[in-house]
Amino acid sequence: MLEGDMNTPTPDPETPRAPGTDAPRAPESGASRVQYTGTDRVPESGADGVPGGGADRAPESGAARVGDTGAGHAPESGADRVPGTGAVRSRGAVRPPSLTRPDGTPVRVLVVDDDPDLAEVLSGALRYEGWEVRTAGDGASAAAEARELLPDAVVLDVMLPDTDGFTVLRDLHTVLPGVCVLFLTARDAVEDRIAGITAGGDDYVTKPFSLEEVVARLRGLLRRAGMARRIDEGPRLVVGDLAMDEEAREVIRSGDLIELSPTEFELLRFLMRNPRRVLSKAQILDRVWSYDFGGQAHVVELYISYLRKKVDAGREPMIHTVRGAGYVIKPAAGR
């Protein structure tokens, strides 16, 4: 060996070499290499995505596991962890069309859970749907928020600090008898599920859960109850087997065309835009006739009777009188 070669280090056979040189190649993974993943930044307000105060969030679609406290586990391939939670949101799913209430306003949802992080992540996902969302951490605040918000759906934890979800559900139904309720709990025994459904819940999801699963179940509940419609469905209202095309001014029930006068159409439209909600005579007079009839409020009773003869004749009734309160339209029993 020549003397000058003694200062030249011998290459490590295990070290990858850069092509055409003896220089070691930089490692392809690890802290020394940063690669853009395509994630977006969460809005600071939390109104249009999963809250995170400037943390990165995943793209707009994909599944997320929430409620799994195993923070040491790496996310599945093709998934991003939602900062500050045990949720994992995967990429690649197609986001379905947005839902609104029948009158075109945002769907209203109340999230009741004593875990503030979980409630915030879930409410962020629902806000991302364009829905109006409020949260409550116990039964007392849930009742207060429900009276103010008048939600279309409630995501309700069974185990709360001051009471249980079943008691909250009974209280909610005294104010909002038609509200959709999705139970959310870590109790996954069959008897727990049966208890939730028997108590009046519409669906039951156990922790850890997928954000997309919860959203999908809520969408299904709201559409089946006639309390929401897809934005891309156009000017069409649907309650049970009753459908109204607002542009064509056609009303169909179970395939049969129903002929209505202009006033009957406006009255039915107001009812169908507020399914399962009790509307007082004063509200109906103000919206349908645009002024106060004073002592002639009986005109509402008269036109309700006209509608019943055309919409409910020979069928399961959909238009109901709530004595001392007003009128409500809801899907016929069994629909």
Describe this protein's structure.
- This protein is of the alpha/beta class.
- The chain contains eight helices and 19 strands.
- The strands form seven sheets. It has a five-stranded parallel sheet, sandwiched between helices. A four-stranded antiparallel sheet has the order 14-15-16-17, with helices on one face. Strands 1-2 form a two-stranded antiparallel sheet.
- α2 packs parallel to α3, α6 crosses α7 and α6 crosses α8.
- The protein starts with about 40 loop residues before the first strand and ends in a 6-residue tail after the last strand.
- The N terminus is likely disordered.
Give the DSSP E fraction (strand runs of 2 or more residues).
15-25%
Strand order of the largest sheet: 8-7-9-10-11
Largest sheet: 5 strands, parallel
Output mean pLDDT.
74
- The secondary-structure element order is EEEEEEEHEHEHEHEEHEEEEEHHHEE
Structural class: alpha/beta
Basic shape: elongated
Beta strand count = 19
Terminus-to-terminus distance: 93 Å
| Low-pLDDT residue intervals, each spanning 5 or more residues | 1-11, 23-64, 69-88
Radius of gyration: 28 Å
Count of helical stretches: 8
Question: Helix coverage percent of residues?
Answer: 25-40%
